[in-house]
Each structure stands twice: as structure tokens, then as C-alpha cells.
Design a protein that fits this description.
By secondary structure, the chain is an alpha/beta fold. It has one domain. The chain has an eight-stranded mixed sheet, with helices on both faces. The two termini are about 40 Å apart. The protein is built from 17 helices and eight strands. Helix content is about 40%, strand content about 10%.
Length: about 425
């Protein structure tokens, strides 16, 4: 917990340095929200793996902790500094066209929580991730007062309707705020964070193949997809065929086109179950885990490991069909030995010196007639004193006298060939999981 406390303390200290400047721009709003923002930053430090961020990164994003709609490009650990983008256009200019994953965090909605969750996702895929900050404004205070903080799964639409308070008082115009001025419909059905996610997903120059959310971030993703379905159904179908959605800490209903949504909930996550749709089954229930993703806690959801296992498991299912058969060692050993051993051939060679005779085993006693004088030339030769030609072992074919002493090569080769050989597997197509009701 020391690393978590250090990251939180550094963020709060850097935040205090920029407070006078923010107070001079919007004194009433910032003075009223600053205590709540500091509280939410502490909550995100408990629920997200903030120690995955470097000290420079925590200092860098401290001034934008509660900026709703802010976009960040978060590389994996050791991949450099994260990047802040004030709008979708800046996101494209700063390398957003190369980003293939998106992460949306929840809980306190601070930038440090969003960056930490995106860092876990980036480490799982070893590639940069786009993170959208949910933020915290005056509308969130009212939403929290009526229970929306605990029932975001059921009262999520209330929060978006209350954002008009922040628009009237004035707030930074980040993310997709510019498109609100172009719309003639004054009724708001989504928040600025959901509008930003929708703009990123609707952009034809961007291509996302993975969308990950946690807690209230799952609701933001769902609102963005439903809004995109109302404006551009074709784009939703394209995303459904190319992108995979993985949710942590809550089951939220997505558009029917997305049939490959994987919901991950901890076994001890009462908060996630409170905000989940009961008719949606949990795909992965992690034992002895709660709602937090901070690996300093014993009951934390390890996002990097879980997401990596999910992606590797889906890839193996796509490459290895269920009916594929793997050859066993017994099935491949016998044919290889039969192909290696050849028929013995007897070749007449010159007598071999006695030193070249094979050494007898230690347990075999020497013949008793070895001390007897050699017999006469005309007498038959006893079996114990056979000639060198008879004493020479019969081996496989030899091409010349130089290779006559290599009789054990074939047996060695046969022993090496006895190791199992994996038969190439046919490629197939994995079945798509059934759609959730």
C-alpha cells in the first residue's frame, strides 16, 4: 500500500499547487467541487491500480483530475509518457489512429483512476489504450444525493439529465463538447463522457477492436453504443463484428448486435451485483475477489491477468477446433523405429585386432578354458576361443571397414526418434457465443 499512498499523496500535492489558478477562472464552481474531487481521487486510489503510473504521469494529470470528456493515450508500462488530448481532433493528431483499444473507468471518475485502469488494459495487450475520463461535476453531486452513486446501473439516465447544471455554470469544453453546439435537440440523453466515447467509436478513421469498462464506465459504454445505434446503425454492426467488449464489476445491457460481451464480476463484489442486470448471466466469476482492481488489496480483480487470459483463450479457440486430435507418443513411436532399422547384411572383413573386441559385461564370468594352451592347427576350435570374425557382433549394414565399428548409430537414432512429434492441427472457426437477453 505504500506505492498507492505515494501516488495519491503526490497527486494531491500537485493538485494543490494548481488550485489558485483554477479558482481564479471559475471561483464558485471550483470552490464547491474541490473537496468532493479530492475525495473521489482517494476512492480511485483504492479501487484502481494507481501505482502502475509513474510519478511524472501522476503529476502531469493532477490538474485535470475531474475533467469530464478528457481523452488520454496510455501506453503500456515502460512505453513512455501518457498523452492528454482535449478533443477528438487532437486525439487523432497525437496518434489516435494507431490505437486499437479503449478503456472507461468508473467509481470516482477521476483522471488518475481512468489512467490506472487503462494502464492495466495496455499491459494486457502490450499496446496503447485510449482512456476517457468520466469526471465529477455539480450534476454528479445531485445524482449522488438521490442514490445514483450506488444505483448507477438503474439511475444512470438521471446523471446525464442533470449535466445541464454544469453547462449553465460553465465547465471546460473537452472531448466531444463541440458537437453539442451543433445539435438542435436540447434534450440530453447522454453525458459528455458518453458523447466522447460515441464520437470516438463513430469516427471512420479510428478502429477499435477492444472496449473495456469497469463499474460506472460500463454504463458509459452502453449509453454511447445505444446513442450510436440511433444515429448510425451501420457503424454499430461494423463494431459488433470487429470489436470485443469486456466489462469488469457490473453487467450492463448492450445493444443486441453485440453478442460477444464478456462480463467479469468478483465473487465478493456486492456493489457490482447491486448495479448489474439480473437477467444477464455472469461469464466469468472470479473467486475471492471484490470490486477493486488495486492489486495491493488481497481481494482485487487482476485486470491485466484476467484480460490476458480471456484474449489468449479466445485466440486459441479460434485456431484450435474442438474436434482436433493430438497424436500420442505411442502412436508415433512404432512407425519411426520400423523405418529406421534396416535388414542386417553380413560383409566379409579383415580380422579385427583383439583390442577391438566388445567388452564383456561385468556380471558375465570369463570362460574357464581361457588359461588352457591353444589347440593344434588340425583340432577344432573350442566355442570359448572363437575367431575374431565369429566374435564380432552382427550389426546393420556397413559400407567399409571404417564404418564397421559404428554399429550403435542406428540404435541411437532410433532412440531419438522415439520422442513424441506433434501433428499439425487443422485450422477452424470458433463458434460465436449465444446472445444475452
Amino acid at each position: 500500500m505504500f506505492e498507492t499512498a505515494f501516488a495519491l499523496g503526490l497527486t494531491q500535492f500537485a493538485r494543490s499547487l494548481s488550485f489558485p489558478e483554477r479558482l481564479s477562472q471559475r471561483p464558485v464552481r471550483n470552490a464547491a467541487l474541490e473537496p468532493w474531487r479530492l475525495r473521489n481521487t482517494g476512492m480511485d486510489a483504492l479501487y484502481y491500480d494507481v501505482k502502475a503510473l509513474s510519478a511524472d504521469e501522476t503529476f502531469y494529470i493532477s490538474d485535470s483530475l475531474a475533467s469530464e470528456g478528457l481523452i488520454m493515450i496510455v501506453p503500456p508500462t515502460g512505453g513512455g509518457m501518457l498523452t492528454l488530448c482535449d478533443s477528438v481532433e487532437e486525439f487523432r493528431l497525437r496518434g489516435g489512429r494507431e490505437v486499437r483499444a479503449m478503456a472507461v473507468a468508473g467509481i470516482g471518475g477521476s483522471a488518475i483512476g481512468a489512467a490506472a485502469f487503462a494502464r492495466n488494459v495496455a499491459d494486457a495487450i502490450d499496446a496503447p489504450v485510449a482512456a476517457v475520463v468520466s469526471g465529477y461535476g455539480l450534476g454528479d453531486i445531485v445524482n449522488e444525493a438521490i442514490g445514483g452513486a450506488f444505483l448507477f446501473g438503474w439511475l444512470g439516465h438521471v446523471r446525464s439529465n442533470l449535466e445541464v447544471i454544469d453547462d449553465v455554470v460553465g465547465r471546460p469544453k473537452l472531448g466531444a463538447y463541440g458537437k453539442r453546439d451543433e445539435e438542435t435537440d436540447t434534450r440530453r440523453h447522454t453525458g459528455l463522457d458518453a458523447d466522447t466515447v460515441q464520437s470516438l467509436l463513430a469516427d471512420p478513421t479510428l478502429s477499435f477492436t477492444l472496449i473495456a469498462g469497469h463499474s460506472r464506465g460500463n454504463r458509459v459504454i452502453a449509453d454511447a453504443l445505444y446513442a450510436l445505434k440511433a444515429t448510425d446503425p451501420g457503424r454499430v454492426e461494423t463494431l459488433a463484428n470487429t470489436a470485443r467488449i469486456v466489462t469488469f464489476g457490473g453487467r450492463i445491457k448492450m445493444p443486441e448486435a453485440f453478442t460477444e460481451v464478456i462480463d467479469v464480476v468478483g465473487e465478493l463484489d456486492w456493489f457490482g451485483e447491486l448495479n448489474s442486470r439480473p437477467k444477464i448471466a455472469t461469464d466469468i466469476k472470479v473467486p475471492f475477489c471484490g470490486h477493486s482492481t488495486n492489486t495491493d488489496l488481497p481481494t482485487a480483480l487482476k485486470v491485466t491477468r484476467i484480460l490476458g487470459d480471456i484474449l489468449r483463450g479466445e485466440a486459441s479457440k479460434a485456431e484450435t477446433p474442438a474436434e482436433a486430435v493430438i497424436a500420442t507418443p505411442e502412436e508415433v513411436t512404432a512407425p519411426i523405429v520400423e523405418d529406421t532399422v534396416v535388414d542386417p547384411v553380413t560383409i566379409a572383413t579383415e580380422p579385427v585386432e583383439p583390442e577391438a573386441l566388445p567388452v564383456l559385461a561385468a556380471e558375465e564370468p570369463l570362460p574357464a578354458a581361457i588359461d588352457v594352451e591353444p589347440p593344434a592347427r588340425d583340432e577344432p576350435v573350442p566355442e570359448a576361443s572363437a575367431s575374431p570374425e565369429a566374435a564380432e557382433p552382427t550389426v546393420e549394414a556397413a559400407a567399409s571397414p571404417e564404418v564397421a565399428t559404428k554399429g550403435t548409430d542406428v540404435s541411437k537414432k532410433a532412440g531419438k526418434a522415439a520422442t513424441p512429434i506433434m501433428v499439425p492441427l487443422p485450422r477452424g472457426k470458433a463458434r460465436r457465443p449465444r446472445a444475452k437477453n
